[in-house]
Specification:
522 residues; mainly alpha; Growth Hormone, Chain: A; 2 domains; 0% strand; binds beta-D-fructofuranose
Length: 522
């Protein structure tokens, strides 16, 4: 089957179609359970920074860093924590997660997401126990396999009108996980004997157990059941999920899309086809830009950053608790706002605020530490200002790029490319999370306060990118999403379909649409 007819199915007929259905307890419960995956992810993001700032952890495992840190007044402040092995402790998890996210989609197609979540939880649990006992993160890394399936799962389960809210729950659970980790670190930082970090790392067992317990009650999505040939079960499931008996319209659309996806075969080669160029670019650019906000500099290294700026140990851990709380709070704006205001306004406002406050942060740090990074005692006023700037930055991220970085990709991919495109999104997110985690301390050491200017420039770039290239997806059913590209000033040259009297360009198809012929004429 040619690419064009697939686009037609993906685009659906009848614009403005309204599938019957309510938000049933199944949908709510499933969304909540699936979001438990986010808790694990968040906990592991938030826990490592605090742990690496603890003397009890640094002394036995990173004695060189520990010594440099103790030499408070002679060292260049920007370079106090510059150790590639130390950053590897945080980052390696995401390197492995990059590979895991590719395996995850294959397993998920074969066994369904429910099974994968149960096993994921179990692996996380083993990893957490292993960590607490031995400080070895390889087991924890394995558990990442299922992370990529969680946002996808949420998006398929919820009726399209409140899809934003449900999907944003995933990000909310990530922020809750980070906040929980910040709190735990603050508490364990007081434990005498220097072994508090073991409780911090072992704490990952709690969300892992929650996830296993919840996945027990989960069921697979209608789409996933259909993909595995279980038609009757899929329909019954859809009825249960939507809470109404008449789901024929939606079920037929899902079936058509599923049929089409089977007949077009490999989602990876589909993704590279010209007609999916917009989705392909977005699958990469959204997570890439999300990570280049610099958010994980704060999430991973807030305590280290605050210590770099001369805060004491528990003040550093306490400041991380504050940024963690702001992160959770501001995500609620997104929970309620994405389906009301739409995605684009949140992207613009969030990007703008991040740009301004990264700039102010750079100026503040530069004015205090200069280029040489000489140690000074920050005045209380400046310290408060720095923490406030970081909070404003985190808040802006939390209602924009944080949740939308998962939501938008999960709603713009038609079924025939979805698993591959979602892989690219999660893989890209993980690889850049890895890179930022790995090189941040090195970059801080060599770029000094200009590092924050570097991130500010990216915030400008990403805002322009969204303005020019990302259409609004609010209130558009997933099955009808192709239309937004067809109507877009730039992307329309890639996405054309035969139903519109235009021609798609599949392999061997030499026909072009009128616009392209005109362009060639000039
Ligand atoms: O809340 C902040 C967190 O959100 C993410 O961007 C995921 O969406 C993480 O990379 C980051 O640590």
């Amino acid at each position: 089957m040619g690419g064009g007819s697939v686009a037609a199915v993906g685009g659906g007929g009848g614009d403005g179609k309204d599938y019957p259905g309510k938000v049933t307890k199944y949908v709510t419960f499933t969304a909540l359970s699936a979001a438990a995956g986010g808790l694990i992810f968040g906990y592991d993001i938030g826990i490592s920074g605090g742990v690496t700032s603890m003397a009890g952890f640094l002394k036995p495992f990173f004695p060189a860093v520990y010594r440099k840190e103790e030499l408070h007044h002679s060292a260049n402040q920007y370079c106090k924590f510059d150790s590639q092995i130390l950053t590897l402790f945080t980052s390696s998890l995401y390197l492995a997660a990059t590979f895991a996210s590719f395996v995850g989609s294959k397993l998920s197609n074969k066994y369904g997401r429910k099974v994968l979540m149960t096993w994921g939880g179990l692996i996380f649990l083993v990893g957490a126990i292993f960590n607490a006992a031995a400080v070895h993160i390889s087991m924890l890394i394995l558990g990442r396999i299922l992370l990529g399936t969680v946002p996808l799962y949420l998006s398929e389960m919820s009726p399209h009108k409140s899809r934003g809210k449900f999907n944003v729950l995933f990000q909310l659970s990530i922020t809750l996980g980070i906040f929980a980790a910040n709190l735990v670190n603050y508490g364990t930082g007081f434990i005498h004997g220097g072994w508090g970090w073991r409780i911090s790392l072992g704490g990952a067992a709690v969300p892992a157990i929650m996830m296993m317990a919840l996945s027990w009650f989960l069921f697979d999505t209608p789409t996933s059941l259909l993909e595995r040939g279980k038609k009757d079960e899929a329909k019954a499931q859809l009825q249960r999920v939507r809470g109404v008996a008449n789901v024929d319209l939606e079920f037929n659309d899902i079936m058509n899309a599923s049929e089409a996806s089977k007949s077009v075969g490999n989602p990876w080669s589909n993704l590279l086809k010209r007609q999916y160029r917009p989705q392909f670019i977005m699958s990469f650019m959204i997570p890439f830009l999300q990570q280049f906000t610099g958010i994980n500099v704060v999430m991973f290294y807030a305590p280290v950053l605050f210590k770099t700026l001369g805060f004491g140990s528990s003040a550093s851990l306490a400041s991380a608790v504050i940024t963690g709380l702001v992160n959770v709070g501001a995500t609620f704006i997104s929970v309620f706002g994405t389906d009301i205001w739409g995605r684009r306004p949140l992207f613009f406002v969030g990007g703008g605020i991040m740009f301004v406050f990264q700039g102010v942060l750079a100026a503040l740090i530069g004015s205090q530490f200069g280029y040489s990074g000489q140690a000074i005692d920050l005045s209380k006023g400046i310290a408060v200002l720095i923490v406030m700037c970081i909070c404003a930055f985190v808040a802006a991220f939390a209602f924009s790029w944080g949740p939308l970085g998962w939501l938008v990709p999960s709603e713009i991919f038609p079924l025939e490319i979805r698993s591959a495109a979602q892989c690219v999104t999660v893989g890209t997110n993980m690889i850049f999370t890895f890179l930022i985690a790995q090189v941040f301390l090195k970059m801080l050491c060599s770029m000094k306060f200009y590092l924050f200017v570097f991130f500010a420039v990216f915030e400008l770039v990403m805002t322009v990118f969204v303005f020019a290239l990302l259409p609004e997806t609010k209130n558009i059913p997933i099955e009808e999403m192709t239309k937004i590209w067809r109507d877009h000033w730039y992307w329309k040259r890639f996405v054309v379909d035969k139903d519109d009297g235009k021609y798609s360009r599949g392999e061997g198809d030499l026909e072009m649409n009128l616009g392209e012929l005109k362009a060639l004429d000039h």
